[in-house]
Specification:
Elements lengths: L1 E2 L25 E2 L6 E4 H4 L4 E5 L3 E8 L1 E4 L13 E3 L2 E9 L5 E11 L16 E2 L6 E5 L5 E8 L3 E6 L9 E7 L15 E5 L2 E9 L4 E10 L1
Parallel strand pairs: 2-4, 10-12
Antiparallel strand pairs: 1-14, 3-9, 4-8, 5-7, 5-9, 6-8, 11-17, 12-16, 13-15, 13-17, 14-16
Length: 225
């Protein structure tokens, strides 16, 4: 399988992060969407908080006089950006930025992470989902270094153009367009941005990979003779 293209970009450094911790805090207070937690800076760090996402969602966190942090694999959020997060229970750590007064935080779910398929089991070439040309496809990578594969049949010799209709300002991903007929690898072929490939008739594979962070994506393949 010959790797014909791989695209990657940097990731934004996080100033205020919300994530899932490996061990859930016992006795943590559940924070509901839209609810604002306000406490003195002396008390807020001593208390435990958690939120529950019932589905993969985009979440925006607001924090005043404090930083909210934690981790859940690749899922990350900041108070400056609205980013995708996997469903689950999120334990929060709060760090104040002032010596006195009050600190507060809240969160809002701004949307559901879209996926073109009910399950994300396309984690190998053998499990690749069949797709068509000239159609947008959505996916979600919620684990670091996860790969999701798609396959498309090319009817004759021509060109395949790979595009991302919903471009992101900050990305942490790579993609490859592969021809499974060659059974060889060429990892040195690195290109940034949309790309067009010369192809022959046959079955081709498109794969998305997350290198360190949860990542939602939209892509389209266009074929011309």
């Amino acid at each position: 399988m010959k790797i014909m293209n791989r695209v990657c970009a940097g990731v934004l450094a996080c100033a205020c992060v919300l994530c899932v911790s490996p061990v859930q805090a016992k006795g943590a207070t559940l924070v509901k969407e839209g609810q604002t937690i306000t406490e003195s800076v002396k008390n807020i760090e001593k208390k435990k908080y958690k939120i529950v996402l019932k589905q993969n969602s985009f979440v925006k966190v607001k924090a005043k006089n404090c930083i909210v942090s934690g981790e859940n694999g690749a899922s990350k959020m900041t108070s400056e950006e609205t980013l995708p997060a996997a469903k689950g229970t999120y334990d929060l750590l709060v760090f104040t930025s002032k010596k006195s007064g009050n600190a507060s935080f809240s969160y809002k779910i701004t949307g559901k992470v879209k996926s073109s398929f009910k399950n994300s089991k396309n984690t190998s070439v053998a499990k690749a989902y069949a797709i068509s040309f000239n159609k947008n496809y959505n996916g979600f990578l919620d684990n670091a270094f996860e790969e999701q594969y798609y396959k498309v049949n090319v009817p004759s010799a021509g060109k395949v153009k790979v595009t991302f209709p919903r471009a992101k300002k900050y990305q942490d991903n790579s993609y490859c367009f592969t021809n499974d007929q060659k059974k060889t690898k060429d990892p040195a072929s690195v290109v940034y941005g949309a790309e067009t490939f010369k192809v022959k008739k046959g079955t081709y594979y498109f794969a998305m990979t997350s290198s360190s962070a949860a990542y939602d994506y939209t892509f389209k393949l266009k074929f011309t003779k």
